[in-house]
Amino acid sequence: MIRKAPVLDVDAILDDRATRIIVCCGSGGVGKTTTAAALGLRAAERGRCAVVLTVDPARRLAQSMGLTELDNTPREVASYDNGGKLFAMMLDMKRTFDEIIEAHADPERARQILTNPFYQSLSSSFSGTQEYMAMEKLGQLRRSGEWDLIIVDTPPSRSALDFLDAPERLGRFLDGRFIRLLTAPAKAGGRSAFKLLNAGFGLVAGAMTKLLGAQVLKDLQTFVSALDAVFGGFRQRAEMTYKLLQAQGTAFIVVAAPERDAMREAAYFVERLAEERMPLAGLVVNRVHTSPVSGLSAARSTAAAEELEARGEHELTAAVLRLHAGRMQLAAREGREQDHFVSAHPTVPVAQVPAMSQDVHDLDGLRAIGDLMAKAS
């Protein structure tokens, strides 16, 4: 028997005009992207101007909306007579990085950065770049004021919450000894810079020149010097976005499947959000298995099937009874996993979404998911 948990009222969250940001997080393969898209569609149909931003590089959001592709610019998906609109986009971290450089550096410095080989590598594959850019894009969307609801679909697994660390990690990168060493000569200026370069950097530079080559080292110094001022502004904006996530008007929804690993990950997300003082709205448990004949237990169903099989009668009925028994056993296992979660986190509101017979690949499917979430309230 599943313990009684507070009910997550999805429609109350969507209808509250004070709610401006919803962040969906959870492990991979639990229907997180579909949940985010369904929330966006339901919000639009109820009169909100919503944009769904996916940070997941997979193309599930576009597929769930019946689109061939999404890019770094919000694309209108649907509009309604009540003023509601739905937009969707997929984070392009390199394009977002380029936009930051172009917006916050003079043309010459922007050219130096964008053509620098180290920047080209950093903007495409540097660890943490995706999280930095997610913070930046969320801040851009919020500051634009074009949408009254932003729904963020985070990457799968625990990296979904890495963007919470973006300001601190960025600060560590910029304040690291190696970066300070590379930027010190340029910041010192004039003859003092030459002396500093010879005294403090000479041995290191000599060793690095032998290892990397003079041109590579020069490119690295040019990149770090040119990027220093730009990154300072980004750090401030990332910190502002972090505070925005902590403020009223933001709601985190954890998404899980009723399986052991997924529910453990959900517990981790709930606990981490509490540590960071992030506003948790509740938990959506997807793909919950139920039966219209829940009064017939697995044991009784199995016993009836065995009796029919022993008589050699009604083979089809016996097979259906065994299928029902298996489904009831699965439902019992799922119930125990949810029970463990609720026991550990009794105050977290929960909405259960029954398993559907097929994957969601269009707006009708998303609408059905939204209806199921609302009925769980």
From TrEMBL:
Q: Where is the ArsA/GET3 Anion-transporting ATPase-like domain?
A: 19-290
InterPro entries linked to this entry: ArsA/GET3_ATPase-like (IPR025723), ATPase_ArsA/GET3 (IPR016300), P-loop_NTPase (IPR027417)
Q: Which Pfam families match?
A: ArsA_ATPase
What CDD domains would the database entry show? ArsA
Provide any one GO MF term from the record: ATP hydrolysis activity
Its name, as the record gives it, is Anion-transporting ArsA/GET3 family ATPase
The organism's taxonomic lineage, starting at the top: Bacteria, Bacillati, Actinomycetota, Actinomycetes, Streptosporangiales
